[in-house]
Design brief:
This protein is of the alpha/beta class. It contains 10 helices and 7 strands. It has a single domain, classed as Vaccinia Virus protein VP39 (Rossmann fold, 3-Layer(aba) Sandwich), CATH 3.40.50. Bound molecules: S-adenosyl-L-homocysteine (SAH).
């Protein structure tokens, strides 16, 4: 897949990164027999829908981190991945962006236990995993308004994802909301929600996956003002009754 990495992300994984991706695949397949972590198990699907898709959303960070690495700028980017499941997009990001720390959050304890178990096997010491609801961690003063970036994929509608991510960002921080197709109605709903939460839609990128040509959109939400105290609302409300 080296050519496709190069053509689509203008980047190629090092031998070490390739080994980590391979190990991640093996660990997920092995655990999947008992844990039901993912339906994506065929190697090509895993590469495209888990590895490539995770990294496509933060393409700009991969090149930025390589440039920063050359300049020996050690500034660390603090990232949270909400509803990470088996570790996506967070783990591929942790493997490829060295100057970052990642907090992988999921409400399901067995998924977080799985991640805790694989981190040492992947030699990842910039990552921790937390069992928590997005609505709770967004109200925790230790975490609220403390991250540079928040990632969220396949968790809820875009406006609900905005309510989960924006409270956790510092001012100027960026949320990346990974989506499949995108409609005008979702666009309007999200513009309204983001405004209430102290954010703005900075850009929406459309692209297709390189093997199966699937439709994808990534929303980039910039935090431009403090999020009002009342957000995120109580557990379950953002999903049941989106802004
Ligand atoms: N992001 C992963 C998993 C998507 S499945 C991927 O793209 O492959 C959605 C995950 O979000 C599930 O693991 C579920 O437990 C978690 N989740 C759903 N609502 C949540 C919430 N409010 N807070 C934290 N995790 C949540």
């Amino acid at each position: 897949m080296m050519d496709i990495w190069e053509q689509t992300l203008n980047w190629q994984p090092s031998i070490q990164e390739q080994n980590q991706f391979q190990r991640l695949y093996e660990l997920i397949i092995e655990a999947n027999r008992q844990l039901n972590l993912t339906r994506i198990t065929n190697p090509e699907d895993f590469w495209e829908k888990h590895l490539w898709d995770s990294l496509r959303g933060i393409k700009f960070l991969i090149s930025a981190s390589k440039i920063k690495g050359q300049a020996e700028d050690k500034e660390t980017i603090k990232i949270i991945d909400l509803g990470t499941g088996a570790g996506f997009p967070g783990i591929p990001v942790a493997i490829t962006v060295p100057n970052c720390t990642l907090n992988l959050v999921d409400s399901t304890k067995k998924k977080v236990n799985f991640i805790d178990g694989i981190l040492p096997k992947l030699n990842l010491n910039n990552v921790k995993a937390t069992t928590c609801r997005a609505e709770e961690i967004g109200r925790d003063s230790e975490h609220r308004e403390s991250y540079d970036m928040a990632l969220i994929r396949a968790v809820a509608t875009a406006s609900t994802c905005a309510e989960y991510t924006l409270p956790l960002l510092k001012q100027g921080g960026l949320a990346v909301v990974y989506r499949g197709s995108w409609t005008e109605k979702e666009n309007i709903d999200t513009i309204n929600a983001v405004e209430k939460l102290g954010g703005k839609i900075e850009s929406i990128e459309q692209f297709n996956t390189p093997l199966s040509n699937g439709d994808r959109h990534c929303l980039y939400l910039r935090k431009v003002a403090s999020t009002p105290e009342k957000f995120p609302r109580a557990v379950g409300v953002p999903a049941r009754n989106p802004l």
